[in-house]
Amino acid sequence: MHRGGPVSATQEHPPEPGHVAAPGADEFIAAQESPEFQRLRKTLRNFVFPMTAFFLTWYGLYLVLGVFAEGFMATKVWGNINVGLILGLLQFVTTFAITGAYIWFTNHRLDPEADAVREGFEDGTYERAAAAAQGGRK
Prior knowledge:
This protein is mainly alpha-helical and 138 residues long. It is built from five helices and two strands.
């Protein structure tokens, strides 16, 4: 049992040797305004928005066919396998394909750009930009 008084979960501890202090809010704002972050954000959006639109359209088409084209969806292809079942299973295949494409995309396109942003924190670029912005506001 602790007898020295209450222990605070927010109690500060000195940083460990070799540990870099957490960036402040101004540093994050400077990073957000940097060209590296803007490029990272644009690259992500250029993948996510079209892929989301594609999948939602594909899923919407599947739903519309299920509601309004019952005869087409019930068309037997092989035994008890019909078009609706095949299209439904293709929804899963599409999900896995999009996930695989996203993993490839992040490894080859996003990670290098995220490394550039991380480097800006590590080398003090954003800290200097935040300090300059603070000096300009005073």
